[in-house]
Amino acid sequence: MNELKARVAYLQGLSAGLDLETNSKEGKLFNGIIEVLGDFADYVGDLEEGQGQLEDYLETIDEDLYQLEDELYDHDADHIHDSGNYVEVKCSGCGENVYFDSHVTEDEDVIEVTCPNCNEVVFVKDESFEFNDEPEALEGQAAGNNPEQSLEQNKDVI
């Protein structure tokens, strides 16, 4: 930025050293060009300053978001892994692990659990659902699977 202003100032000095009449056609042209170049240098300087402020602001937001994600996801991951009251099912659509409360298996209503990433149904509890007291033996019907097939191939109990 300072380099542009310095170069415009140099051109102004050269123009003054040429002793061109300011009222002549050439003098008016050179003065007009140098004036426009000065305006461009000022405008570019303002843009650089604004860009720097935006970069600082964006960096601050990024750091804050990183801290929030770190607190949120670390807390959620600790809660899920520590509680033991959640069932983990791998989504056949996107491959992400989906966690849901194991109390869903005790509900008498028909329940579908969908993946929050791709909205694929990852677990269905309906009238054909059977639940053993042992979490490792949890069986049910996954969307698109035969009701007799075990969900064990798609999930692990934490």
Helix fraction, binned, reads: 40-55%
How is the largest sheet built, in terms of strand order? 2-1-5
Beta strand count: 5
The rounded distance between the terminal residues' Cα atoms is 59 Å
Count of the separate structural domains: 2
Mean pLDDT: 76
Major sheet attributes: 3 strands, antiparallel
The backbone outline, from C-alpha atoms, is rod-shaped
Total count of helical runs of at least 4 residues: 2
Structural class comes to alpha+beta
Describe the model.
With about 160 residues, this protein is α+β, with helices and mostly antiparallel strands. The protein folds into two domains: about 1-80; about 85-155, no CATH class. About 45% of the residues lie in helices and about 15% in strands. The protein is built from two helices and five strands, in the order ααβββββ. The strands form two sheets. The protein has a three-stranded antiparallel beta sheet with strand order 2-1-5, covered by helices on one side. A two-stranded antiparallel sheet has the order 3-4. A hairpin with a 6-residue loop joins strand 3 (about 110-115) and strand 4 (about 120-125). Helix 1 packs antiparallel against helix 2. The longest helix has about 60 residues, at about 25-85. The chain is rod-shaped and about 100 Å long. The two termini are about 60 Å apart.
